[in-house]
Specification:
single chain, 305 residues, mainly alpha, 13 helices, 0% strand, globular
Length: 305
């Protein structure tokens, strides 16, 4: 026990950037494990049922903390926003989970890197955030990366690829709604209600298309529940220590990690076009995040002065 306490103290003595990088890499590992659970569960279960279980497992993970501190803290005034976000997020998650079972993992992850690009555009439209020429150029470059992956004319554009791009747009829209909700609700509350409504929206189709999970599906759901809950938590630990722009380059590790999972478990050979396009998309998203971070710093400096 004393060795554990000593290790914790040594870890806490490290620089914030080192600790943030550690949490970010762990989060990336968890994100790479998510597709394994999705694919295992999806072998026998409908995708909508997998999404429903994903929501239920997250609710079960968060609920004990509120039982201990008081269920009254679960009250919210943002019911309509949670319902809208769950509908959009649920649709996007169904497409995301389904796309991961159809396309090679490196292509699926590369296409989903477009999420921040859609978020930039939607934030400018609905939140009035500034979209200057630099950010607009970076966003257009990012969408050019999508064309590198899809190679229209050289290769047929499949339904799964389109579904993944639509999924990224849905996730981006849910991020915008989350920004609005987070003005009044704490992170634990947004996690609970977000997944509760997600479970509610997918419950009826899950009952309609119900398939009783076999042992392998249960294992897959357990892997999905643990990795899918830990991944955002670990990433949140990282961004609490340093600015997101500082550790965002580490997020690109998801692509080679998922490619490695595809090689080892599913005999999927990496697609160089997916890596090239993913790198372009990621670089543009990183530049947008970096510029936004600097803009926030400039605004904070002006406010203090």
């Amino acid at each position: 026990m004393s060795r554990l306490h000593g290790a914790v103290r040594r870890f806490e003595s490290l620089s914030p950037m080192t600790r943030a990088a550690f949490w970010c890499v762990l989060a990336t590992v968890m994100f790479a494990i998510v597709p394994i659970g999705v694919r295992m569960a999806s072998e026998t279960l409908p995708t909508v049922e997998v999404v429903c279980f994903r929501g239920a497992l997250a609710v079960l993970c968060v609920l004990p903390f509120y039982i201990r501190s008081g269920l009254v803290r679960l009250r919210t005034r943002n019911t309509k926003l949670y319902a809208a976000r769950a509908a959009i997020n649920g649709f996007g998650m169904v497409l995301w989970f389904w796309g991961m079972t159809v396309l090679p993992l490196d292509q699926a992850v590369a296409l989903h890197f477009t999420l921040p690009l859609f978020a930039v555009v939607l934030a400018a439209i609905f939140l009035g955030e500034r979209l200057n020429r630099g950010r607009l150029f970076a966003t257009l470059v990012g969408f050019a990366g999508v064309l590198v992956i899809l190679r229209p004319g050289a290769a047929p554009i499949g339904t799964a690829a389109i579904g993944l791009i639509v999924s990224a747009a849905c996730y981006a829209a849910s991020v915008i709604l989350l920004k609005i909700i987070s003005r009044s609700d704490e992170p634990g509350l947004t996690t609970f209600h977000g997944h509760l409504w997600l479970m509610g929206f997918t419950l009826v189709p899950t009952i309609w298309f119900w398939v009783t999970p076999d042992w392998r599906a249960i294992q897959g759901l357990a892997i999905l529940g643990v990795s899918g809950t830990l991944a955002p938590y670990l990433f949140a630990r990282a961004v609490r220590l340093v600015d997101a722009a500082a550790i965002m380059p580490l997020d690109f590790l998801r692509l080679p990690m998922n490619a490695a999972v595809g090689i080892m478990l599913y005999a999927e050979m990496p697609d160089l076009w997916a890596f090239a396009g993913g790198a372009i998309i990621f670089a543009s998203a990183y530049l947008n995040t970096r510029w936004e971070s600097r803009a926030r710093g400039d605004r904070g400096g002006r406010e203090q002065s």
